[in-house]
Design goal:
Chain lengths: ~300, ~300, ~270
């Protein structure tokens, strides 16, 4: 019998090496692989559906008037969302002006100056926990701090501060990571020619990390532009043109929310148009961020 | 070259030294400020909640009336809604997310396509929640009406189930990202060892990889739970905002976050304080979940770094 | 304070640049180097050789207080620079590093243009000249590093566009641009090919005219080729199971390689260990 082994591929001991899709464990593997593919498909369905509906419903309303006119009074046709677009730009700009310097400086401390590491560990920990705090809580915080106390009232500034709180953890984390990638030798080189600490940070380390930091800031801005909950009762809303940063101001996201829940079709159409603009913003920034990340120095 | 040739300018001026110290101090202050921000948020909300805390005490979390007209406030229906909608969302998202995470951490398909898939899932996380809400109102609710109609069931639209479905879509990316990271950071020898003694691919996944990555996966699920409990817009727009406990998932409900979104702008007097109290309860709930999640996730990181 | 230091430095300018006295170096409670005493003469090349872990790089980094960056590092004993202890509490380490430059193991140009790589040091050191003077300084520094002819047409390109050997010469040019008195080199050729290594060695011989050079090297041939004096550091096991480095022998290079006094030195230079 043994003499057959080498010559006949059909000998039982070698046939066992062949794939056999009816064997229980192979069946199990095929089923599980199929299930995981199914999971991917199910996960992507909402993405496709959301993108499709926003595009279909929103595209029809993309007209020049959308970018130049105020929203129509309830029930009337036409109009645009120009005030909300400008308002979003203003509120996000305020949030960026607050959170970027704050976040970048904090990250510089974490990666460059934190000596014993203990303080840095706690700050990193609290920053991570902060990023999990619901966005509406940031709105409640700013409402209690600025709106109710009358410091700013309902205003673009209050909205900006609320968004800044949300942007801060992202900016700190991405800057911290970006600085950590910069090779230690570059810092030594700068210190070796006699640079002070601020010179090394401002002239060597930060410039080298700028592409990654910009990526993080861009993503944070895109997220902030879509945030609604922190703005509802800080920036409030306005049907008119922005009137200074200490007045209530319209934003795209709050406009989508307000117009989605009214029974007037023209308003609902503007809500879809606003959604499309927000989604395009997110899509564009995500793609830009990817491209920029690829051109890193290190 | 002698030391005397050294130009005097190279000596650091007092100003330069002072600025150097100031710069380092400033970064330190900003970093510590960020660390304290969380405490400041909790403290300010707690302070604003004090009148309501005095008035209702712990009764607040077990009473189920929310009546601004009579100034009687209890948050139980919202706490119930927050927990139930979040848990149902997890129930849907965890198996799906794990399946996707496994698929993406294994080499079923070429890396290029996987990168595209990862990007699409990131996009899922990046879409603003208000857009999900809008989509929920005009697409998901009609679709669910049609679906339940097939079985002759009455379905009015805004409901706990609708909110949970939207929430599950929104937390999927978190579960996928963190589970995938945990699976990907496992040492490669683990997989090789298992495959080397003749285990099949899925045998290896279930018996070796998932158990080894379990704490990271749990951490990701906790983060997702925190996100689901605090998610506001999508929930507000489709949950129906009914301040009553209804055991049926097809009935409207409410969450703390949507209560805040709905009532803050028009609230007055004690109602503001009651809302602050509710917000404080939400802060505590999400803090507990997030701190646990961070501890778990950072322990996992420490293990493989 | 700073002026005082500078003045003192001038007055006591001696035939010795560095005088190390009874130095022990610790990382936390772990003693890494014990009991080093030596004198480093000006305008010569002094090389530090020895097996891995003997503390030669550690000692080198003490000479411009670069070890300050390591939190748990501390040092006992004295390191005198023209008679001034560098570790006195009133010494500004930033000032020290402006006088004592450093070239590192791996070329580490800044992610800037070639021009800005050189100009960075003078600028932060308060260079007051106009553009023409800076241009001249950049040219002079690059010429000293024998890199000028290779890069003069692409000064505005990134430092990363150069080859490894060119990058290292750029780093040397960067170090000499601030006109230090001493240039410390920590295995400057270990990441380079033989031809680039040869170029750097020729460069060191030229720089010796103007600067005091201290170089750490793993390559004994390099030490014999370039160094006037050589210090052999050795490491011995300690009771606690670690290793501690010490200065085994310090002498003219010919003596160290031709007629070593210590058995350990002879074993090392003849390749028996290390």
């Amino acid at each position: 019998m043994t003499s057959f082994r080498g010559t006949s591929p059909e000998s039982p001991s070698l046939a066992g090496l062949r794939k056999n899709s009816s064997r229980p464990r192979d069946v199990f593997n095929i089923i599980m692989t199929g299930l995981s593919v199914l999971c991917v498909v199910i996960t992507l369905i909402p993405l496709v559906l959301v993108l499709a509906f926003v595009t279909i419903q929103g595209a029809g309303s993309i007209t020049p008037a959308l970018f130049t006119e105020l929203p129509p009074p309830p029930g009337l046709e036409g109009g645009g969302i120009a005030n909300a677009i400008i308002g979003t730009l203003i509120v996000v700009a305020i949030a960026t002006l607050i959170s970027v310097p704050f976040g970048v400086m904090a990250a510089v401390y974490l990666s460059e100056f934190s000596k014993d590491g203990q303080v840095a560990r706690w700050v990193r920990f609290f920053t991570n926990v902060l990023s999990g705090v619901p966005s509406i809580i940031s709105g409640v915080f700013v409402y209690a701090l600025l709106v109710r106390t009358g410091l700013t009232g309902y205003s673009a500034v209050a909205g900006g501060v609320a968004l800044a709180v949300l942007m801060l953890p992202t900016i700190i984390r991405t800057t911290d990571e970006a600085l950590n990638i910069i090779p230690q030798e570059i810092r030594w080189a700068s210190i070796g020619v006699g640079a002070s600490r601020y010179q090394t940070v401002l002239q060597i380390v930060l410039p080298a990390a700028i592409p990654s930091i910009l990526t993080g800031v861009t993503l944070a801005i895109a997220r902030a532009a879509g945030e609604t909950a922190p703005l509802i009762f800080t920036a409030l809303f306005s049907s008119f043109w922005p009137n200074g940063i200490l007045q209530p101001i319209a934003t795209l996201s709050v406009l989508v929310y307000n117009f989605a829940i009214v029974p007037f079709e023209p308003q609902q159409e503007l809500a879809w148009a606003g959604s499309l603009i927000l989604v395009l913003l997110v899509l564009l920034t995500s793609i830009i961020a990817r491209v920029v990340t690829r051109q890193k120095t290190y | 070259m002698t030391a005397s040739d050294v130009p005097n300018t190279r000596s650091r001026t007092a100003g330069e030294k002072k600025f150097d110290g100031f710069f380092v101090g400033l970064t330190t202050a900003f970093a510590i400020g960020t660390g304290l921000l969380l405490l400041a948020i909790s403290f300010i909300i707690l302070m604003a909640a004090i009148p309501a805390i005095r008035e209702f005490g712990l009764q607040f979390v077990i009473a189920s009336t929310w009546n601004p007209v009579q100034d009687a406030y209890g948050a139980l229906p919202m706490i119930y809604g927050t927990l139930v909608s979040a848990f149902i969302a997890l129930l849907i998202a965890v198996p799906l997310g794990l399946g996707v995470a496994i698929f993406l951490s294994e080499n079923f398909i070429p890396l290029k396509i996987r990168t595209v898939l990862v990007f699409m899932i990131e996009l899922l996380a990046a879409i603003p929640s208000v857009v999900y809400g809008l989509w929920g109102i005009f697409v998901l609710i009609p679709a669910m009406k049609w679906f339940f109609g097939l079985f002759g069931l009455q379905f009015i639209g805004p409901s706990m189930l609708t909110a949970a479905l939207i929430l599950s879509i929104m937390i999927l990316p978190i579960i996928i990202a963190i589970s995938r990271d945990s699976l990907a950071s496992l040492p490669p020898d683990l997989r090789q060892a298992s495959l080397g003694i003749g285990a099949t691919r899925w045998g290896t996944i279930f018996r070796v990889l998932i158990p080894a990555a379990v704490s990271g996966i749990v951490g990701g699920i906790m983060l997702a739970l925190g996100r689901a409990m605090g998610e506001t817009m999508a929930a507000t727009m489709v949950i129906g905002n009914s301040n009553q406990i209804s055991l049926s998932l097809l009935e409207p409900g409410n969450t703390i976050a949507s209560l805040l979104a709905n009532q803050f702008a028009e609230a007055k007097g004690l109602q503001v304080s009651a809302l602050m109290y509710a917000a404080f309860v939400l802060v505590i709930m999400t803090l507990v979940v997030n701190i646990l999640a961070q501890v778990i996730v950072s322990n996992v990181k420490a293990k493989y770094d | 304070m700073v002026e005082q230091v500078a003045a003192q430095t001038n007055q006591t300018k001696t035939s010795t640049v560095f005088k190390i006295e009874d130095c022990d170096i610790y990382y936390g409670s772990y003693k890494a180097v014990r009991d080093v005493s030596m004198e480093i003469p000006p305008n010569q090349i002094t090389s530090f050789i020895g097996p891995s872990g003997c503390g030669k790089s550690t000692i080198l980094r003490c000479l411009n207080r670069l070890n300050d960056l390591i939190e748990i590092f501390h040092l006992t004993g004295k390191i005198l620079y023209h008679g001034q202890n560098l570790y006195d509490s009133d010494i500004d380490p930033v000032e020290v590093r402006r006088r004592i430059g450093m070239v590192f193991q791996r070329p580490n140009p800044f992610p800037k243009t070639i021009y800005d790589n050189i100009a960075y040091g003078p600028r932060i050191n308060g260079f007051k000249g106009d553009t023409d003077e800076m241009d001249a300084l950049v040219e002079r520094s690059l010429k000293r590093a024998v890199l000028w002819d290779e890069v003069k047409d692409k000064l505005q390109e990134s430092g990363f566009s150069l080859s490894g050997g060119q990058q290292q010469r750029l780093c040397i040019a960067r170090a000499v641009a601030v006109d230090p008195e001493v240039v410390l080199m920590d295995e400057p050729c270990s990441a380079l090919d033989p031809i680039s290594t040869l170029k750097i060695e020729e460069l060191m011989m030229e720089l010796r005219e103007k600067y005091t050079i201290v170089i750490v090297t793993h390559n004994m041939q390099q030490a014999t080729r370039v160094a006037d004096k050589t210090a052999f550091f050795n490491a011995v096991p300690t009771e606690s199971g670690g290793k501690v480095g010490y200065l085994a022998e310090f002498n003219d290079t010919q003596e160290i390689f031709g007629n070593p006094k210590e058995t350990a030195t002879r074993d090392y230079v003849t390749g028996r260990f290390g």
